[in-house]
Structures are given as C-alpha cells and as structure tokens.
Amino acid sequence: MKIHCLSTLQELPTSPEDAWKFLSDPKNLSKITPASLKFKIKSGADKPMYPGQIIEYSVSPFPRIKSTWITEITHLKEHQYFVDEQRFGPYAFWHHKHFLRKTDRGVEMEDIIHYKLPFGFLGELFHNTLVLPQLNRIFNYRRVQLEEQFGKI
C-alpha cells in the first residue's frame, strides 16, 4: 500500500482573516479549480465551514470519466487550518490539510495532501503518467487563481 504526499506552499499579500474568509467558503472551490474538471458542488456548501460538514461534488478528472466526491471537514481552527478527508470518491484515501500562517508580507498558505490510488498495483501504474501530473496542474491553476484573487508577492 503506497501513500503519496503532495505539498504546496504559497505566500499571498493578504491577512490570515481575508485568506480564511475566501478559502473556508466551500463555494469558492469552484473558482480555483480548472474548468476542464467540470467541478460542481452538489450539496453541503450552504453554511460556513465547520467540523463534521459533508460536501458532495461531481468532478470529471479525465475526459469521459465522471466521479462523485464526498468529503468531510474533520478539523478546523479558524484563520489557521482545516482538514478535508474523502469519504467516497476517486481515491482509495485522501487527506488534505490546509494551513494559513501570518508572515511579514501577508500569509503563507500550505497544502499537504496524502493520498492512495485505487486498484492497487494497477492504479500505481498511472500515478506518474496521469495522476501526479493532473494534481500538479490543478494546484498550479489554484496558485494562479489565488494570485489573481489576492495579488502576488
């Protein structure tokens, strides 16, 4: 069983409070997700984020492949961090930590994702050629969108 880890770090010229306001609103996830994923929130995003919140999405990670993704917000400390975990979806395991830290120039945002692919050895065959490049594209897109939202340092 292979658990992969993807980590990103980005500094934004904004306050932890303003970054939190944007990032903790599930409805904003569609603004920082590439349109090619056909990402759509189906339910659970009608309230401010809280521990135990269940959010259901539909997503198309690759052409002609559609998936329902259900996540739970398991941990949250306002203006500092939240954790979402997949309950059902395209991964065998998905645990995504979002951290915000105040810096001299604004806020540092760190994402740490631990994930496991489905289908054992067969799933692993696609990690380096399909899955990791797709995840990198998604988080690079997110970086650009957040710079448009808050500015660039």
| Total helical segments | 3
CATH architecture: 2-Layer Sandwich
The biggest sheet, with number of strands, parallel, antiparallel or mixed sense and barrel status, is: 7 strands, antiparallel
> How do the strands line up in the largest sheet?
1-7-6-5-4-3-2
Portion of residues within helices: 10-25%
Question: What radius of gyration results from the CA coordinates?
Answer: 15 Å
Count the beta strands: 7
What does this protein look like?
This is Cell division inhibitor. This protein has 153 residues and is α+β, with helices and mostly antiparallel strands. It has a single domain, classed as START domain (Alpha-D-Glucose-1,6-Bisphosphate, Chain A, domain 4). It has a 7-stranded antiparallel beta sheet with strand order 1-7-6-5-4-3-2, with helices on one face. Strand 6 and strand 7 form a beta hairpin. The mean pLDDT is 95.
SSE arrangement:
Blueprint: E1 4-12, H1 16-23, E2 40-43, E3 54-62, E4 65-77, E5 81-88, E6 93-103, E7 106-116, H2 120-124, H3 127-150
Antiparallel strand pairs: 1-7, 2-3, 3-4, 4-5, 5-6, 6-7
InterPro entries: START-like_dom_sf
Protein name: Cell division inhibitor
Task: Based on the model shown, name its key terms.
globular, 3 helices, alpha+beta, 153 residues, seven-stranded antiparallel β-sheet, 42% strand, single chain, Alpha-D-Glucose-1,6-Bisphosphate, Chain A, domain 4
